[in-house]
């Protein structure tokens, strides 16, 4: 049976309550009659022979590129870069797609007699991965072969010794990337395209860049001009990365891009009800739901968090292309759209979303309040093409406890951002001007970023900028079940129930508003007409 | 009435020069201001004890002229105020407890140039030690008279007049608490007077001090101070404890002498040492310099009753210091004092300060008489204020104008029952005893942070309750007294004044409208001075904390020094050891490891409490044989994956805030250098412990004395000296009394999450207290073990040596 496409359900009196994520728990929520619920397409089937598909892609490149075997020569300097812990979500069951691709690449490199090989995790300003995370992404074999010899590195955006200034784009954007990668005879980038903004020139121009370079497109101006940043033609973020990518290419840096898409098979069997349509739940699904949600409500928060972060997604390889960056990316985007696209007719007054426990920036960590905002307003809101699901001046209602919890090891600058910046302003422009520089250049944050597992000092600002477009577009943001003090500090409105939230929303959008719920995850992209 | 002399006071006293003792007191300040304001061309010479760093004149200007008493005069004189004050006020250094006031030839010459000598210095506090009260109150007047006699001789040698009149301020209560009329007579004329030899009293009081001094230095008394200091301060180090024990010894002597004073006074029929010593002081003065003495002096005595805030001069309600009735009134308004003894129909003999001042000036204008003239100034006979009436007014006023508690809620005042003194005393004693006991228990518990603050609050209540008890003990007698102080002679002076002088120097208590005085003048002034909350809203405490935080973060500071454990992170040497030692232990050995550590727990804890240095010395032995490179690399993991999760973000942010402000930052800790290496970049400098190395392995023995306890203060001092930093401009953050020496050494101590003993100390001394906690989402594992990995086996180095 082929997977069914995504669709928009209009609720009536007989529609069962819908699954609503609330961070580290979930519940069933009855939506007003006449509401629309957008369901993601069902996960595509896995490729039968992923190894074969990978080998095929390497030997039959896309765009203006020779096959990998022809690019590898003995005595060359080869650098393989790969996406970090932020992808995919949740982390996939072993073997990780990166391991499969890298093993295939390394096999070919070995047979070509390439000896100078270095692997680099393309962190940008993300936290360094732990040993076990690296082992999970690359497999023990690769890890043990490279790590002990110092050939497995993590990109350090604050190491002047290992950064190379490439030049400036016509727009005056400075491009500075990892020196080893830039000076290699061949740079292979192994990517996972979970959402449409991933991949392409962004892989190298962002993943291997320094703060000096990133600040040119990670800022409020770019983000408010990306409508949305998930849709390349309308994304200023995309344009900036493409300009930089062009500069990198012109500088003679040879990139062999390998991009992959996974299907949206997000949850393992015992949680599979989470990605099913509620009226199709079997008795077993209902029982699982009841048992799980009850257990999660009773469990201490930390335990619930451990349970969720222990989930490994049964994601499977859906497609893989290799070769020239832009040509590869174009093909991959088609596949992402095929898997995730859902047609939606017209905008809505109110959009609701249940926010799950995970975002790209809190794998094995805590979804702190800033990341809550970013997940809802940065990611889910922007998962559209054409127009946002919600009309301008409309209301977003998100479900999440939004407690003022932070991981002190991973998000130290977030804590200070929450205490020192959000208490002063929630305006991205103002914080960009008045606070960003101090956080970005703070030696303590840099120390923690470089030696520990901390996100860069500037990262919370970026997460806030991610929300710029939504905050400008929306008339009000309401968080149901959110800690009132925390929610207010972020400039949002707390509500205890959906009914309360709807009453509050009516002050903004008027009586009898239309409502659309994003039934997310699995991920989908709304094609709003 | 034709022979009635009409006295114009201003004209009579014009151009006179007054010599005044006790100028910094309540009455003294009012008197000086009044003389300068109301008597043209008058001058004052003030006898003032020089301060440690200030001269007598500095003190006069700072403590007298700058008082709000002078606001009116300052306004009247405008720009010429400073100039006039400088010209009309002189100060001579001296002290009423020294022979001849400690005046040298210059001082005597200065006095010789004065016309009227007013002796207003007294030890009025209820808790003055007996010997001190004797020196000041009993011997003081005679010493002033000695100086006056010398000044007169000096003046005679120069052929000038010299002092013409000495006025000694005493108190109505010298008449003791007997019932009936107390006339303006010298003591000894009354049939009830006990014949006491004041010489003997002086000698005994001095002897008593010597005895207590000796006793306090002997075992077991001396030992007890050390025990109590240790209980209070914990393992703060022998030096700090010695300082505290010595202070306790001095307090003990003081207590003993206060009690001795009360005991002796009450045995002789006075309520406490103040009126008793004052009474004997009068007697001594008359014996030495009265008309029947060998060298009589022109002396008058003025006896006020209980002096309270001004009725009109210099401004209604003006008051200096927290005086007799005020603490009681405020305790009552705050709901702390539920009852105060007294009989409703009893008379509270209160007299506004301006009337006393007017009386003294009138006596000065009148001049001396043949005999020693006594003038009383009191309200009880002429215009009595009944105790019941006073209570009614106070109750009504505070009901209409309540004080507010910490939460901004109004406090309703209790209804007053006029209980007997014994009952109130018993109640208060019970209350303080209960608080004392609870405090002891709290002090012994290992409390921290906000919970420890409860103990500190309790202590504050205890202080207030104890103070109230003191007042009840002291003033209870005054409210129960039924003596009626005649003021006929003062009224006669008043009658002789010109109309104009009467307006300026009003002293007739009949003019007092008690309701107006209590409700519109006195209580508003008391409340203003008591610094209590009179409006709902933000708590005063928070303001205070904000203010001291702003001080701590002023750009003027030069150095901020931090302790590590429980100040910046919730970790300790045992935690870090457990993590590092288990890092490479196979799963099978972990249970035994934990069991072993837990078994040693009580021993370790006891040792830590006794002596931190010994504890570290024996605990660090556990590192013996550990590979240096492994500990170093594991420490980075320990830091990022464990210690960061136990850190206090607000504390870390504070360190960086200091750096941003340009302050130097220093970490002082007993933790090991290897382990805190990842933390070092947070600070400009780190001073910590270090273990010896041998063939790439740790010896387990410390290289040098670790910077803990008292040693921290020394290390800090050296550091500051080396960097040219002033300790007065240094901020120190620490969590326990073991850091007391360091906290005391700096200008800006901050108690972070203080354990109960430090919380108490911080509160008493008004130190900033910060409550920093782990981030929500941080780790709170009790005994964190290192992550288990199979990858790098064989690295375990744990030693099984146990604590000695």
Short synopsis of the structure:
The complex is a heterodimer of chains A (529) and B (804). Chain A is α/β, with parallel strands linked by helices and 529 residues long.
Strand and helix layout:
The complex is a heterodimer of chains A (529) and B (804).
Chain A: E1 7-10, E2 18-23, E3 26-29, E4 36-39, H1 50-59, H2 68-71, E5 77-83, H3 97-111, E6 116-122, H4 131-146, E7 152-154, E8 163-168, E9 174-178, H5 179-182, E10 186-190, H6 202-207, H7 211-214, H8 220-224, H9 236-250, E11 255-262, H10 283-298, H11 301-309, E12 317-323, H12 325-340, E13 341-344, E14 348-356, H13 369-380, E15 384-386, E16 390-399, H14 412-421, H15 428-434, H16 436-440, H17 443-451, H18 459-466, H19 468-473, E17 476-480, H20 484-489, E18 493-495, H21 498-509, E19 515-519, E20 525-528
Helix pairs in contact in A: 1-3, 3-4, 13-18
Chain B: H1 9-13, E1 17-21, H2 26-38, E2 43-48, H3 56-65, H4 71-77, H5 81-88, E3 89-93, H6 105-112, E4 116-119, H7 130-138, H8 140-158, E5 165-169, E6 180-182, H9 198-216, H10 221-233, H11 238-267, H12 273-289, E7 299-304, E8 306-308, H13 325-333, E9 350-352, H14 353-366, E10 373-377, H15 387-400, H16 421-444, H17 449-480, E11 483-485, H18 488-495, H19 499-504, H20 514-529, H21 540-552, E12 559-562, H22 573-582, H23 587-610, H24 612-620, H25 628-643, H26 649-660, E13 664-672, H27 673-676, E14 685-689, E15 691-694, E16 697-702, H28 710-722, E17 730-734, H29 740-745, E18 748-752, H30 756-765, E19 768-770
Parallel strand pairs in B: 1-2, 1-4, 2-3, 4-5, 5-7, 6-11, 7-10, 8-9, 12-13, 12-17, 13-14, 17-18, 18-19
Antiparallel strand pairs in B: 15-16
Task: Report on the architecture of this protein.
- The complex is a heterodimer of chains A (529) and B (804).
- Chain A is α/β, with parallel strands linked by helices and 529 residues long.
- In chain A, the strands form four sheets. In chain A, strands 1, 2, 3, 4, 14, 16, 17, 18 and 19 form a nine-stranded mixed beta sheet that branches. A six-stranded mixed beta sheet of chain A has the order 7-6-5-10-11-12.
- In chain A, α13 packs across α18 (459-466).
- Chain A is globular.
- Mean pLDDT of chain B is 83; it is low at 790-804.
- Chain B is an alpha/beta fold.
- In chain B, the strands form five sheets. Chain B has a seven-stranded parallel beta sheet, with helices on both faces.
- The relative contact order of chain B is 0.09.
- Chain B contains 30 helices and 19 strands.
């Amino acid at each position: 049976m082929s997977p069914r496409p995504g669709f928009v359900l209009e609720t009536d009196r007989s529609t069962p309550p819908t699954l609503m994520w609330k961070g580290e728990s979930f519940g069933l929520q009855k939506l007003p009659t006449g509401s629309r619920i957008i369901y993601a397409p069902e996960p595509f089937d896995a490729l039968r022979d992923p190894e074969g598909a990978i080998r095929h892609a390497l030997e039959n490149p896309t765009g203006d590129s020779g096959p990998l075997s022809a690019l590898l020569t003995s005595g060359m300097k080869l650098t393989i870069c790969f996406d970090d812990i932020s992808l995919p979500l949740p982390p996939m069951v072993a073997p990780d797609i990166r391991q499969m691709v890298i093993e295939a690449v390394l096999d070919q490199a070995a047979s070509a007699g390439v000896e100078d090989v270095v692997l680099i995790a393309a962190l940008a300003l993300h936290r360094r991965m732990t040993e076990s995370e690296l082992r999970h992404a690359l497999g023990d074999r690769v890890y043990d072969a490279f790590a002990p010899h110092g050939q497995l590195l993590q990109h350090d955006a604050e190491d002047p010794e290992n950064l190379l200034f490439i030049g400036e784009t016509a727009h005056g954007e400075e491009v500075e990337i990892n020196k080893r990668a830039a000076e290699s005879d061949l740079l292979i980038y192994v990517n996972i395209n979970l959402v449409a903004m991933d991949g392409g020139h962004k892989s190298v121009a962002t993943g291997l860049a320094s703060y000096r370079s990133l600040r040119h497109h990670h800022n409020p101006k770019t983000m408010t001009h990306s409508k949305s940043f998930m849709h390349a033609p309308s994304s200023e973020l995309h344009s900036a990365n493409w300009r930089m990518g062009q500069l990198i290419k012109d500088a003679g840096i040879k990139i062999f891009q390998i991009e992959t898409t996974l299907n949206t098979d997000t949850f393992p069997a015992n949680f599979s009800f989470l990605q099913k349509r509620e009226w199709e739940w079997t008795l077993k699904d209902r029982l699982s739901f009841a048992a799980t949600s009850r257990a999660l409500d009773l469990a201490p928060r930390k335990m619930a968090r451990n349970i969720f972060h222990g989930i490994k997604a049964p994601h499977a390889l859906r497609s893989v292309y290799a070769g020239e960056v832009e040509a590869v990316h174009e093909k991959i985007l088609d596949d992402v759209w095929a898997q995730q696209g859902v047609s939606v007719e017209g905008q809505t007054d109110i959009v609701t979303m249940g926010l799950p426990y995970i975002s790209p920036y809190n794998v094995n960590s805590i979804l702190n309040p800033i990341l809550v905002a970013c997940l809802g307003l940065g990611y889910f809101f922007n998962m559209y093409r054409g127009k946002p699901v919600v009309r301008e001046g409309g209301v977003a209602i998100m479900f999440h406890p939004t407690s003022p919890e932070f991981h002190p090891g991973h998000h130290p600058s977030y804590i200070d951002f929450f205490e020192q910046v959000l208490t002063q302003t929630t305006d991205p422009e103002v914080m960009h001007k008045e606070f960003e520089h101090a956080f970005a250049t703070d030696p303590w944050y840099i120390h923690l970023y470089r030696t520990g597992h901390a996100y860069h000092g500037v990262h919370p600002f970026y997460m806030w900028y991610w929300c710029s477009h939504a905050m400008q577009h929306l008339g009000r943001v309401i968080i149901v079940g959110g800690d009132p003090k925390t929610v207010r500090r972020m400039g949002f409105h707390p509500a205890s129930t959906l009914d309360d939230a709807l009453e509050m929303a009516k002050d903004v959008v008027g009586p009898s508003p239309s409502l659309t719920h994003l039934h997310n995850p699995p991920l989908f992209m709304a094609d709003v007409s | 009435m034709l022979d009635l002399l009409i006295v114009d006071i201003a004209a009579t006293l014009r151009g006179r020069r007054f010599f005044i003792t006790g100028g910094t007191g309540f009455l003294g300040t009012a008197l000086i201001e009044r003389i300068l304001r109301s008597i043209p061309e008058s001058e004052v010479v003030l006898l003032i004890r020089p301060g440690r760093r200030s001269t007598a004149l500095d003190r006069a200007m700072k403590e007298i002229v700058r008082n709000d008493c002078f606001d009116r005069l300052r306004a009247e004189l405008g720009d010429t105020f400073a100039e006039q004050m400088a010209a009309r006020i002189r100060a001579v250094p001296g002290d009423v407890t020294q022979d001849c006031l400690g005046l040298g030839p210059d001082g005597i010459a200065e006095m010789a140039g004065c016309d009227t000598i007013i002796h207003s210095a007294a030890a009025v506090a209820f808790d003055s030690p007996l010997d001190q009260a004797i020196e000041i109150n009993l011997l003081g007047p005679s010493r002033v008279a000695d100086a006056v006699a010398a000044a007169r001789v000096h003046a005679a040698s120069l052929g000038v007049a010299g002092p013409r009149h000495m006025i000694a301020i005493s108190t109505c209560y010298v008449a003791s608490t007997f019932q009936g009329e107390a006339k303006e007579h010298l003591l000894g004329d009354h049939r009830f007077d006990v014949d006491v030899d004041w010489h003997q009293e002086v000698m005994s009081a001095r002897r008593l001090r010597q005895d207590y001094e000796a006793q306090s230095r002997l075992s077991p008394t001396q030992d007890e101070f050390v025990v109590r200091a240790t209980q209070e301060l914990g393992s703060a180090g022998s030096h700090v404890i010695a300082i505290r024990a010595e202070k306790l010894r001095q307090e003990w002597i003081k207590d003993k002498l206060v009690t001795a004073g009360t005991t002796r006074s009450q045995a002789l029929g006075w309520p406490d040492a103040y009126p008793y010593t004052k009474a004997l002081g009068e007697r001594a003065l008359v014996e030495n310099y009265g008309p029947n003495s060998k060298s009589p002096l022109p002396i008058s005595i003025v006896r006020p009753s209980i002096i309270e805030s001004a009725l009109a001069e210099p401004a209604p309600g003006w008051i200096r210091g927290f005086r007799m009735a005020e603490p009681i009134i405020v305790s009552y308004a705050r709901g702390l004092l539920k009852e105060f003894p007294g009989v409703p129909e009893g008379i509270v003999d209160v007299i506004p300060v301006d009337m006393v001042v007017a009386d003294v000036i009138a006596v000065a204008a009148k001049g001396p008489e043949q005999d020693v003239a006594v003038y009383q100034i009191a309200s009880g006979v002429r215009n009595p204020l009944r105790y019941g009436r006073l209570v009614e007014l106070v109750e009504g006023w505070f009901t209409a104008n309540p004080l507010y508690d910490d939460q901004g809620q109004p406090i309703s005042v209790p209804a007053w029952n006029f209980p007997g003194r014994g009952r109130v005393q018993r109640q208060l004693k019970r209350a303080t005893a209960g608080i004392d006991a609870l405090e002891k228990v709290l002090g012994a518990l290992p409390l921290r942070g906000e919970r420890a603050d409860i103990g500190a609050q309790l202590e504050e209540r205890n202080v207030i309750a104890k103070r109230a008890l003191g007042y009840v003990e002291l003033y209870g007698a005054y409210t129960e007294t039924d003596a009626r102080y005649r003021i006929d002679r003062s009224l006669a002076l008043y009658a002789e004044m010109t109309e104009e002088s009467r307006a300026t120097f009003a002293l007739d208590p009949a003019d007092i409208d008690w309701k107006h005085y209590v409700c519109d003048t006195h209580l508003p002034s008391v409340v203003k001075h008591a610094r209590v909350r009179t409006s709902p809203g933000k708590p005063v405490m928070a303001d205070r904390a904000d203010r001291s935080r702003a001080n701590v973060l002023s750009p003027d500071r030069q150095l901020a020094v931090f302790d590590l454990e429980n100040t910046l992170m919730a970790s300790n040497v045992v935690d870090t050891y457990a993590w590092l030692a288990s890092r490479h232990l196979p799963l099978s050995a972990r249970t035994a490891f934990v069991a072993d550590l837990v078994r040693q727990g009580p021993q370790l804890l006891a040792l830590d409490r006794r002596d931190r240095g010994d504890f570290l010395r024996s605990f660090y032995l556990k590192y013996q044989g550990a590979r240096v490179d492994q500990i170093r690399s594991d420490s980075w993991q320990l830091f990022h994956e464990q210690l960061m999760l136990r850190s206090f973000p607000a504390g870390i942010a504070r360190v960086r805030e200091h750096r941003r402000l340009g302050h130097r930052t220093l970490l002082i800790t007993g933790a090991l250098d290897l382990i805190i290496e990842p933390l070092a970049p947070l600070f400009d400098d780190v001073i910590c412990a270090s273990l010896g190395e041998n063939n790439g392995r740790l010896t387990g023995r410390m290289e040098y004395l670790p910077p803990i306890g008292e040693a921290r203060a020394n290390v800090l001092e050296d550091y500051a000296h080396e960097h040219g930093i002033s300790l007065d401009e240094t901020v120190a953050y620490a969590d326990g009394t073991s850091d007391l020496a360091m906290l005391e050494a700096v200008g800006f101590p901050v108690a972070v999450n203080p354990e109960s003993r430090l919380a108490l100390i911080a509160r008493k001394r008004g130190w900033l207290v910060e409550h920093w906690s782990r981030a929500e989402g941080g780790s709170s594992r009790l005994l964190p073990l290192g992550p288990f990995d199979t990858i790098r086996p064989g690295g375990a180095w744990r030693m099984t040596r146990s604590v000695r």
